[in-house]
From TrEMBL, chain A:
<protein>
    <submittedName>
        <fullName>DUF1214 domain-containing protein</fullName>
    </submittedName>
</protein>
<dbReference type="Pfam" id="PF06742">
    <property type="entry name" value="DUF1214"/>
</dbReference>
<keyword id="KW-0472">Membrane</keyword>
<dbReference type="InterPro" id="IPR037049">
    <property type="entry name" value="DUF1214_C_sf"/>
</dbReference>
<feature type="domain" description="DUF1214">
    <location>
        <begin position="106"/>
        <end position="207"/>
    </location>
</feature>
<feature type="transmembrane region" description="Helical">
    <location>
        <begin position="38"/>
        <end position="60"/>
    </location>
</feature>
<keyword id="KW-0812">Transmembrane</keyword>
<dbReference type="InterPro" id="IPR012038">
    <property type="entry name" value="UCP009471"/>
</dbReference>
<keyword id="KW-1133">Transmembrane helix</keyword>
From TrEMBL, chain B:
<feature type="transmembrane region" description="Helical">
    <location>
        <begin position="7"/>
        <end position="31"/>
    </location>
</feature>
<keyword id="KW-0472">Membrane</keyword>
<keyword id="KW-1133">Transmembrane helix</keyword>
<protein>
    <recommendedName>
        <fullName>DUF1254 domain-containing protein</fullName>
    </recommendedName>
</protein>
<dbReference type="InterPro" id="IPR014456">
    <property type="entry name" value="UCP010244_IM"/>
</dbReference>
<keyword id="KW-0812">Transmembrane</keyword>
Length: 229, 185
């Protein structure tokens, strides 16, 4: 309706004022404004640099290489640290000067969450139980959210498969806690706050599953949260 | 021609996103060329090149290199193939040991453990293709028993890991790692 009313008035203005505001934008003459253009270009470059650098920083700082192989709460990065690695893992590994566990040696699996998806908390008590893939030897280490080892009450920060207590079927139960527990005890950080973060690293040595494809369908231990302060 | 404000905003936003993507890719690809300390540089802090240097025990707050297993003892040897082929020789009394060869960028070149080595003793020769063809003209007697690895990487380092089954065995493993050789033929 409105179009029907405005069109006659637009036509009646004649040729003399064709450059005026009422002309459609697409055919209106362009009045250049160098200062505005410069400001626009500057804004585009500024926000692009901010966005590009901060997104790269966030991805690299997270220290979680892409294309992980995931089994329950456990993640492995079989390709990181090899010539086939993606650019993000290359950046993460060279920036942290990380020495990868090579495929002929073993495979490292990292858990940052428990089996129900909650972030691991060093003040809680966890039960790690189940089975591991076949390996000649494996070790379980507790470290903080940034991948550093932490001071514990007994001084050790790991458990090795050959010194575990097992039931007659060969299954094991590990209690990860700050204070001593009977059975297989994996000590957690003595003076940790929840914000320090916690990671469990399971390193399988001389395991057939060192390539990503072989990891499908293997069973890994469950991580259950027993208690939190 | 004048653009509508909404159209100019869309163009500006798209330009920002495209430029941001380019900058993101450049930053990620540029990091490996701009790191101050690579694992190869860090390994130099523990002793001279072309010999195995025992790394201090992996303990909280004093990790020699990041991401090492506290259950293991480690020895590292930096080498440059420009100074001739490198022969690794070690006999380690541990239920598990493994060696990884890495190039100067920290990428895995080759690795094996005491089961795949096929013998209790580690004897491995690392050389370039030219050095291998020179060596073939006048082969040493034990060439058949060596694991020979041809590589294009001129410089790199080897990390020897040995599992300590019990603290009482630590001194024995330490001695074996110190005695491991990484040098010329």
């Amino acid at each position: 309706m409105s179009e029907l009313i405005t069109r006659p008035t637009f036509l009646s203005r004649g040729e003399a004022d064709w450059y005026e505001e009422k002309l459609p934008r697409a055919i209106r003459p362009y009045n250049s404004n160098p200062l505005r253009t410069l400001a626009a270009v500057f804004l585009v470059v500024f926000f692009a640099a901010l966005l590009g650098i901060s997104s790269a920083y966030l991805v690299i700082e997270r220290e979680q290489p892409l294309n992980a192989v995931t089994i329950g709460p456990w993640h492995a990065y079989p390709k990181a640290g090899t010539a086939d690695a993606d650019p993000y893992s290359v950046a993460i590994y060279t920036r942290g000067a990380l020495v990868p566990l090579a495929s002929g040696e073993g495979l490292a699996l990292i858990a940052r969450q428990d089996s129900s998806g909650h972030l691991l908390d060093p003040t809680c008590v966890y039960r790690i139980a189940g089975q591991t893939p076949t390996a000649r030897l494996w070790t379980l280490t507790a470290q903080d959210g940034r991948g550093h080892l932490v001071e514990t009450l007994p001084g050790r920060v790991h458990l090795a498969s050959q010194s575990l207590l097992r039931d007659p079927e060969g299954n094991f139960q590990i209690t990860a806690a700050r204070n001593p527990h009977s059975g297989n005890w994996l000590p957690l950080a003595e003076k940790a706050k929840a914000s320090d973060g916690l990671q469990f690293v399971l390193r399988l040595y001389d395991a057939p599953v060192t390539t990503g494809a072989a990891l499908d369908g293997v069973s890994m231990p469950q991580i259950r949260r027993l208690a939190c302060p | 021609m004048t653009l509508s404000p909404r159209f100019s905003l869309t163009v500006g936003g798209l330009a920002t996103l495209c430029l941001a993507a380019i900058i993101h890719i450049l930053v990620v690809l540029g990091i490996p060329h701009n790191v101050q300390h690579s694992a190869y540089d860090n390994a130099a802090a523990y002793g001279p090149d072309r010999r195995f240097n025992l790394l201090p025990d992996v303990e909280p707050g004093q990790e020699a290199l990041p991401d090492l297993d506290p259950a293991m003892k480690h020895a590292v040897c930096r080498f440059q193939l420009g100074n001739g082929p490198v022969l690794f020789d070690a006999s380690i009394p541990a239920p598990f040991w493994s060696i990884g060869l890495f190039n100067a960028a920290g990428e895995t070149v080759y690795s094996l453990n005491n089961r795949t080595a096929g013998a209790e003793r580690l004897s491995m020769l690392v050389l370039t293709t030219e050095q291998l063809s020179i060596l073939r003209e006048n082969p040493p007697e034990n060439l058949e028993d060596l694991i020979v690895i041809e590589t294009d990487e001129i410089s790199g380092f080897a990390l020897l890991r040995a599992f300590v089954p019990h603290p009482t065995r630590a001194a024995e493993v330490d001695a074996a790692l110190t005695a491991a050789s990484c040098g010329g033929i």
